[in-house]
Design goal:
The complex is a heterotrimer of chains A (288), B (379) and C (225). Chain A has a single domain, classed as Thiamin diphosphate (ThDP)-binding fold, Pyr/PP domains (Rossmann fold, 3-Layer(aba) Sandwich), CATH 3.40.50.970. Chain A contains ten helices and seven strands. Chain A has helices at 18-26, 55-66, 81-86, 101-115, 129-135, 137-145, 191-197, 211-227, 250-259, 271-281; strands at residues 73-77, 93-95, 122-128, 151-156, 202-206, 231-236, 266-269. A seven-stranded mixed β-sheet of chain A has the order 2-1-3-4-6-5-7, sandwiched between helices. Chain A is globular, with a radius of gyration of 19 Å. The model of chain A has no long low-confidence stretch (mean pLDDT 93). Chain B has two domains: 5-210, Rossmann fold; 268-378, Rossmann fold. Chain B has helices spanning 9-15, 25-34, 50-62, 74-86, 98-102, 106-112, 137-142, 155-169, 236-263, 284-298, 316-322, 339-347, 368-378, and strands at residues 5-6, 19-24, 40-43, 67-70, 91-95, 118-123, 148-151, 178-183, 191-196, 201-202, 268-271, 277-281, 303-308, 310-312, 328-333, 354-359. Chain B has a seven-stranded mixed β-sheet with strand order 4-3-5-6-8-7-14, sandwiched between helices. Chain B has a five-stranded mixed β-sheet with strand order 11-13-12-15-16, with helices on both faces. The radius of gyration of chain B is 21 Å and the shape is globular. Chain C has a single domain (5-216), classed as Pyruvate-ferredoxin oxidoreductase, PFOR, domain III (Pyruvate-ferredoxin Oxidoreductase, domain 3, 3-Layer(aba) Sandwich), CATH 3.40.920.10. The model of chain C has no long low-confidence stretch (mean pLDDT 90). Chain C starts with a strand and ends in a 7-residue tail after the last strand. The chains are: A alpha/beta (288), B alpha/beta (379), C alpha/beta (225). Chains in contact: A-B, B-C.
């Protein structure tokens, strides 16, 4: 994006909403802000309608603050709680249908390559676990098989939350939720392993209680997708509403789950991605 | 690849000297796309469509298209087409029968997202037991998706309608998808003589910034799209926003009439319309009717014909006017449900005079004798 | 349309029924006539029933799809009749009065008395041509059976010129514009591999046709009624 494009025409200054003026004057476009700068700039997501204590809300805030080039990033979402928040995001973002996010992202990315062959246009999919691991799994995996240059981020709240708390493929075994009234009877799907086998060049899992690590992972995933091939990031984001947690218990829940090994943090970097990331990160401190 | 120069649509459609070619309907698709300046096409196999998209793939290999690949199923293909169209390129795909139904959720979504996609539907049966044979029943399901629907009678129509569909779909006051329908096998696999424009000319490229909704390329300035997401906040504003959006999409379809009228020379074509008995048909049912009419004429029976080229928007006013004085209106169709007869009945002043039939389905062609039987019953 | 000739070709997948129809159609178009060609088949499989429909007229042809009342029926394989491998039953269903039937067989087939009676009532003419044998003996390959059948057609009718047929065969096999289905393309390659150049393929096929035209034999109803 040409940053000049979001300058406000002087004759409109008096009628533009304050929040748009703030985005132009204090937004993150072209500034290379990161999660450490949160609180000092106008964020891309604000006033979203997600529940108090929602793991997705925190994760999305961190993801958007971590994007290396927000001024040239297009987000593709899917039906679910995250979709409700994306209408509040000041980036081009697409919500097409439930489950087709990676197919939409494929067409989008290939078309943007045609129109802007010499410019960076990052396409980042951000969708829930129902969209990614259940209804859209075939299209998610096919985009990996085809080695599409897109980043897939799954916000894993282990349920269909927007529809009232139904069991999903990512729900833990034995958990009782709607549509699994006697408890889920098969294990949580290990999508990170699937992603690696299916051709992702970079795969990582983490949680929003570790903002700096999440930032590093998102940036690595976006850089690798831009240059090499598909990348997958899984972010554990508990759902207080459907798992009946108090909003202020979210971070503690993450820490407990991390300790008991059900929220594992992991990173897989293919050899070509490793070469790229070493070159980009240059051995300097990238923990910003 | 031949060097092509960009010409005005009207030159390509109406002025350029045309050459005769003895080709199939599938090859007519290739000839249209070759001149359509398409950026990207996405394919998925299904009989009787596959050959068309093989040939579009050949165009990609020859350099006429910039991007082409096989998707993983029709729902995914239509989703990939969505992403590409939202990024601002001209896209093309084709499907038919079960593929149409597999992809179905995407069609109203294209319309609501105001994407000027052109999709060829090369129709076939969809019921169990499995059939690959011709049938237009999928058009019945498509009627209320909001897409514009053109129905080709033969390979010539298919060629012309596909090229014109891009220009109609991309009008800023329309900007909704167009489905060009042709009967599988009867058009796709039939070899006949058609006339095509020279190979060295093509349509102007698509201008993504003529879109009435923002292109998703982060070149347009981004804004928060909605303060209150529609689905979650069920309040008066969200209802009103939804309703007005749908009305605007409907209006876009209505605004397409004048463009279809201009480029296709009318939503309908008619001959001998003062006759007491009229046949109203679309697709290859028109061809079969022409044959029946010529046999009837040899027997001294005068029959008129109304060929519907546009199914959506539906030529209600045209049909009402043309059938005003007819004593009987015969609607032959290649499907069991008789969707066209229903549509025609809703358009004519006295629906009792509409005879829904003959109907042929299961893959067999429509025997001309069946149409003649209906004609004789009306005498 | 009074001057329209409708030809129904019934055979088995792989016998070149579609190709024969294409060549006939392209040739009549070269002769300045109107023509449409319709193939009709289910799954693309060798030995499955395959039919092609050719309509030839001096006026524009509207009707499409399968031909229900043919003037000429061409049977590319005895199994079409003996094993019901066709889309119409009996194989001559809808044949015009005074219609013609051309059958690929070395010997007359054992048609039932009922069938012979019906054909006799239609004043039909049955012709036999040993198309596969001629294709093998003269063309050196069974794949020229369809050309021998076209030769047989030349022997019993006056629909098209040899010159146009020759041009149509050359255009059909000389790469360029023709679009073949995958299975047809495989057979095309087998056929082309038998010749060093297209000219040889065309010459050989023209010989096959001429031989078939000269040996096609009318079946004498009286002898079997």
């Amino acid at each position: 994006m040409n940053n000049g494009l979001i300058k406000i025409s002087p004759c409109f200054e008096d009628v533009m909403p304050q929040e748009y003026k703030d985005l132009v004057e204090q937004g993150s476009f072209g500034k290379n802000f990161g999660v450490s700068d949160l609180g000092s700039f106008k964020e891309l997501i604000e006033e979203h309608p997600l529940c108090a204590g929602c793991g997705l809300a925190l994760s999305m805030r961190l993801i958007l603050a971590s994007l290396p080039n927000p001024e040239n990033t297009i987000i593709v979402g899917s039906t679910g709680c995250s979709a409700l928040a994306f209408s509040q995001v000041a980036l081009h973002n697409i919500h097409s249908l439930f489950g087709n996010q990676n197919a939409v992202a494929t067409g989008l990315k290939r078309a943007l390559k045609l129109r802007f062959p010499n410019e960076i246009k990052d396409v980042v999919v951000v969708a829930g676990d129902g969209a990614t691991a259940d209804i859209g799994l075939d299209m998610v995996m096919q985009s990996w098989f085809r080695r599409e240059n897109i980043t897939t981020i799954m916000l894993d709240n282990e349920a269909y939350a927007n529809t009232g708390g139904q069991e999903s493929g990512m729900t833990m075994e034995k958990a009782v939720l709607n549509m699994a009234p006697k408890g889920k009877n098969f294990p949580k799907v290990n999508l990170a392993d699937v992603a690696r086998v299916a051709g992702c060049a970079y795969v990582a899992t983490c949680n929003p209680a570790k903002p700096r690590m999440l930032e590093k992972i998102v940036r690595r995933a976006v850089f690798t997708a831009r240059e090499i091939g598909p990348t997958y990031v899984q972010i554990y984001a508990p759902c207080p509403t459907n798992y009946k947690l108090k909003p202020d218990e979210m971070l503690n829940t993450i820490k407990t789950r991390e300790k008991d090994g059900t929220y594992p943090t992991s990173e897989y970097i293919s050899s070509s991605a490793k070469e790229l990331l070493e070159r980009l990160e240059g051995g300097t401190n990238n923990e910003k | 690849m031949i060097d092509q120069r960009i010409v005005e649509p009207k030159h390509l459609f109406f002025e350029a000297e045309r050459k005769k070619r003895f080709i199939t309907g599938s090859e007519a698709v290739k000839e249209a796309i070759k001149r359509a300046n398409v950026d990207m096409a996405i394919s998925y196999p299904i009989t009787p469509q596959s050959e068309s998209m093989h040939l579009v793939g050949d165009l990609f290999a020859e350099g006429y298209l910039k991007e082409y690949f096989r998707g993983e199923n029709e729902f995914a293909v239509m989703s990939e087409i969505t992403g590409a169209a939202m990024a601002g390129v001209r896209v093309f795909t084709a499907t038919g029968g079960p593929g149409t139904l597999r992809a179905f959720e995407m069609f109203p979504t294209w319309v609501g997202a105001r994407l000027p996609v052109v999709c060829a539907f090369l129709t076939r049966g969809v019921n169990s037991p499995l059939t690959i044979q011709p049938d237009t029943i999928e058009m019945s399901f498509m009627l209320d998706t909001g897409m514009l629907m053109l129905h080709a009678e033969d390979a010539q129509d298919l060629y012309d309608m596909l090229l014109k569909a891009f220009i109609i779909a991309e009008q800023p006051d329309v900007h909704i998808p167009v489905g060009v329908f042709a009967d599988g096998f009867f058009v796709t696999h039939t070899r006949e003589t058609i006339e095509v424009a020279p190979e060295d000319i093509k349509l102007p490229s698509y201008n993504p910034y003529s879109s009435p909704v923002p292109v998703m390329d982060m070149v347009n300035a981004p804004v928060r799209q909605m303060r209150d997401p529609f689905v979650m906040k069920s309040n008066f504003i969200s209802y009103a926003a939804h309703a007005s959006w749908q009305q605007e999409v409907l209006a876009a379809g209505e605004r397409a009439r004048k463009h279809i009228d201009h480029y296709l020379n009318g939503l309908v074509e008619s001959e001998n319309e003062e006759a007491d008995i009229l046949i109203v048909a679309s697709g290859t049912a028109v061809s079969q009717s022409r044959e029946a009419i010529s046999i009837a004429r040899e027997q001294g029976i005068n029959i008129g014909l109304v060929k519907l080229k546009s199914i959506r928007p539906f030529p209600t006013e045209e049909i009402r006017a043309l059938t005003k004085h007819a004593k009987a209106v015969i609607v032959p169709e290649f499907n069991r449900v008789g969707w066209l007869a229903r549509e025609v009945k809703s358009a004519v002043n006295n629906s009792d005079k509409v005879i829904g039939g003959p109907r042929v389905f299961g893959g067999m062609t429509m025997p001309v004798e069946l149409i003649l039987d209906e004609i004789r019953r009306c005498l | 349309m009074k001057n329209k000739i409708s030809i129904r070709m019934s055979g088995l997948g792989g016998q070149g029924v579609v190709t024969a129809a294409h060549i006939l159609g392209a040739a009549t178009t070269l002769d300045g006539k109107f023509c449409t060609v319709n193939p009709f088949f289910g799954a693309e499989k060798r030995l499955a029933p395959a039919e092609s429909y050719v309509r030839i007229s001096s006026e524009k042809i509207n009707e499409r799809g399968e031909i229900l009342s043919p003037n000429i029926i061409m049977i590319f394989h005895p199994h079409v009749i003996t094993m019901g491998k066709c889309y119409t039953m009996p194989f001559f269903d809808g044949l015009h009065k005074n219609g013609k039937i051309l059958i690929n067989s070395d010997e007359p087939l054992d048609l039932s008395q009922e069938e012979l009676n019906k054909l006799n009532q239609l004043n039909a003419k049955i012709y036999y041509v040993p198309a596969t044998r001629i294709a093998t003996d003269i063309g050196g390959t069974e794949l020229s059976t369809n050309m021998a059948m076209l030769g047989g057609l030349m022997g019993i009718s006056d629909l098209v010129s040899y010159e146009s047929i020759q041009v149509a065969i050359t255009e059909r096999f000389d790469g360029g514009n023709f679009v073949a289905s995958a299975t047809t393309a495989v057979l095309d390659n087998v056929l082309k591999s038998k010749y060093n150049e297209i000219a040889q393929l065309v010459e050989s096929n023209m010989k096959v046709m001429e031989e078939a035209a000269s040996v096609v034999k009318e079946f004498n109803f009286a002898s079997s009624m």
